[in-house]
Specification:
This protein is of the alpha+beta class and about 170 residues long. The protein is about 20% helix and about 40% strand. It has one helix and eleven strands; from the N terminus they run E-E-E-H-E-E-E-E-E-E-E-E.
Length: about 170
Amino acid sequence: MQYFLKGCILLNDGTFIIDMRNAMKKEKKHWLHLYNRILSGGLVLLGFSACENNGTGADEYGTPYCRFEIKGKVQDELQQPVSDARIIVKELMENGKPSDPYYFDTVYTRKNGEFQFLDEDAGSMGKYRVVCEDTSGENKADSVELKMEPKGGKGWFGGEDSKEVDFNLKKKDE
């Protein structure tokens, strides 16, 4: 008959047999924990050294963006403000074509003829075509192309720029 003691086996003849399997498992577990601690510490040190700034700047994930503002005033030939004029703003690529022919923003002038367009998540191209249309149909449409030059950016923020555009619309020929 066999009796089991912790880590030992007692046989009927009174001899003890040490259970080496458990001792080996404990020793193996101890060394595994030690190796894990050493490897974790090494990875931590490598991580800190990878984050140091060696003049190339910080690594960031995301998309560069800028903040652009286009504002101005719309007047007719008599220098009277044109209210409710439609201002269409299209972002252009470097070659002058619209970046997306189906995407554009529209704002309308207030009673005093002033308008403001704000693009807080603009791409870095910064080239726009601004079209002004009189919704009453009395004046001809006019347009202008702008190149924004962002300043003061840091990291993914490319900076900001503001341009003022005034339109003097001419009467339509009847």
